[in-house]
Input
Amino acid sequence: MISQDKIEEIKSASDIVDIISGYISVKKSGANYKALCPFHQEKTPSFMISPAKQIFHCFGCHEGGNVFSFVQKIEGMTFVESVQLLAKRTGIELDYAVAPGVKSDKDKIIGANKAALDYFRETLASGGRGAEYAASRGLSKEIIDEFMLGYAPPGDGLFRRLKEKNVDDGIIEAAGLCKRTGPGFTDVFRDRFMFPIFNIYGEPVAFGGRVLDDSLPKYINSKETVVYVKGRNLYNLNNAKKYRAGYIAVVEGYTDAIALYKAGVRNVVATLGTALTQDQARLIKRNADSAVIIYDSDEAGLNGAVRGGDALFGEGVETKVLIIKGAKDPDEFIGKNGKDAMVKSIESAVPFIDFRLERIKASGDINSAYYKETALKEIAAVIAKAESFVVRADAVKKAAMHLALKEDTVAGYLAGFSGKGAEAIEEAPEKGASKERGANLAERSILKAALSAFGIEDEQGVLKHVKYAREHAGIEYEGFYNKVYAKLLKRIEELVLEGGADVQRKLDMEYIEGGEESRVLSGLYTEISAEKRDKEDSVYAEKLMLIIDECLETRRKAMIKAKLDVLGGMIAKAEAEKDEDALLKLITERQETQKILNSRGEDFE
Ligand SMILES: [Zn+2]
Output
C-alpha cells in the first residue's frame, strides 16, 4: 500500500508538462500546451495539457486524466506501477521497509545488473571476439544500441568489475551473475554474446548469453531472482512499446526479435523459451490491442502458438498467427526471401480462431462424431474466455463452418459450457435515444458548473447551491441518466458537508487511479480552463448558480415527462382491459403530474 500522502507528494513533484514532453513534443498555446495525441492518429493537435490543473485531455479520442493516468496509458502500466515509475523519476523513496537512503536488495541487484550491462557493452565496443561475432551476424551499431547487446569475455572479469564497484558478494550471488566456487567466485557468463532483459521500468533484470560457435548449451539465461521471474517479462517490450504500431509482434527468441527489427518490424517482443503466459498476455494487452504471433513451423512452435494464442484471446487481444514456412526461423526466412516478404507475411497472418480450428482439425478425424464432440469441447473452452459478444459471435460462426455444424449447435453447446453462448448470437442492445442525450447534457452542465466553482471566491456558495437547488427540484442522484456525473456530484455534496475546504483536491485524489470518473473530470477541467470567464468572481458565481438551476429544471421536466409516458402506457392498458377503477386512479395521477410539470418551473426561485 502506498499512502495517499506519498501519492500526493509524488504528484506535486511530477510536473505534467515535463513528464508528457519526455514522450511527445508539446507546444505552448496560451495558458495551456497542445500536442498531437499519442493515443490516436491525428494530423492537427487536439491533445491539451493544462499546467495549472496538472491534467491532460484529448478532444479527439477523449482520453484524459492526471500525470499518473498519462504514464499508465503510455507505458501500459497499472496505477501502482505508474506511481513507482514517477517516484523513481522524482527521487521520492517508496520503500518504507528500509530507512531513507538505505537501498533494498531489489535495488542493489538492479544496480549490480546495471554494472554488468555496462561491462558487457564496453567489452563488445572494445573489439575482439564479441565484435567479430556481431559483424558476422550483421548486427549493426544501431541494433547493438537498440537492444543494448554486449559481450562477456572468458575469465572472471565481471566479478572483478563488480568488486571494483563495491558490490557485496551476497548481492553478486543473488543477482545470478557469478557463482560461488570454493573460496572464490566464477562468472556465470563466459565467452558469450549477451542479451539483456529489461523490466517495464527499463531496468536490466536478467541476461541471456549465447555461445559464439555451435557448442552446447547454446544459451544460458539468468536464474530467477527477486527482480526476475520467468514468464512475467517480455524481451524487448521496453523498446517495442515506443513504436506504438497498434499491434505487437510476438516471437520466440532473442535472435527472432532482432531479425524482425532488421526487417523494419520494431514493435516486436520475445517470450523466451516458454509459451506465452497469461501474465505476458496481460502485458501485451496493456500496450496494444492486437498481436501477431510469429513462431516456427516445428511442433514446439505450433504448440506454442496454440497456447500463447489462447492466453491472448482470453485477454481480449485481437490475435493473428503467422507460422514461418520454408525456413527454420524468421532470421532464415528474411535471409532467403527478403524484408518485404516478411512484412507481407505478417499482413496476411491468419486470425487466431481460424488457426486454432485448423490445428484441432489436424489432430483428429473431424468426420467422426466422437472427435467432433472433442473438437467442439476444445474450441468452446477457448471461445468462452472472450468477453466481447461480437468476438464470440464471430468465433461461433467460424467454429460451425470448420466443424461442419449448425451455428445453433455450437452456440447451444457454448451456452451450456459457460452461460455466455446464448447472448453470443443476440443483437447488440440499442443505445442512446435522444431524450437520454438531452438529460445527459443537462447533468453534465450541472457537474461542469460545480467544477467551475473550484478556486473562486464564493466556491462554497456555489457548491452548497448544488445540494440546495437539487433538493428543491425534488431530484435524487439515483434518477440520473449518467451514473458517473451522479457519482461525482454526490461526492462533491458530501465533501462540502464534511467540512468544506479543499474539495477539489480531495475529489481529485479519490479518482487519481484513473477510470471513467477521472476521464470525465479531466475533460471538464480542460474545457473550463479553455473558456473565457467573467472577471468578477461574484458575477461568475451568480452565473454558475443560474446554470445549475436551469439544468436541474430541465432534468426535473424530463423526469416528469418520463413519468407521464409510463402513465400513458398504463392508461392504455387499463382501457383495453376495461379496468375502470385503475383507469380512474391513473387518470387522476396523470392530471396531478401534468399540473406539476406546468407549474413548478415558475415558482422555483
Ligand atoms: Zn487522442
Residues 37, 39-40, 47, 58, 60-61, 63 surround zinc ion (CB under 6 Å). The longest strand covers residues 204-211. The radius of gyration is 31 Å. The longest helix spans residues 537-576.
